[in-house]
Amino acid sequence: MEIKTGKVKIYNSARPEGFILDEAAYLPLNLETVGDKTWDVPNDDFFVMGDNRNASYDSRSWGLLEKSYIVGRTWVRAWPFDRFSVFAPVSYQ
Asked: Which end of the chain is more exposed for a tag (fewer CB within 10 A), N or C?
């Protein structure tokens, strides 16, 4: 994966040419992700970024997160109140 010119691009076996990650559902349209760099993300590791991109302390700073450190999941969004929702379980297998 890479961050370049404010966009996140993902490369995988299904799309070896890569694709730009569509973040319109959770980031403001004018927000650019800073930190031009490329990362190799092996299986059982995750690259995580906060939705408050310009103030998030995340994988751009401290690197990849091993799967074993993920111990929970988001199941409800309470803020902002007008977007309150309950999320269905997701499988990353």
From this structure: C
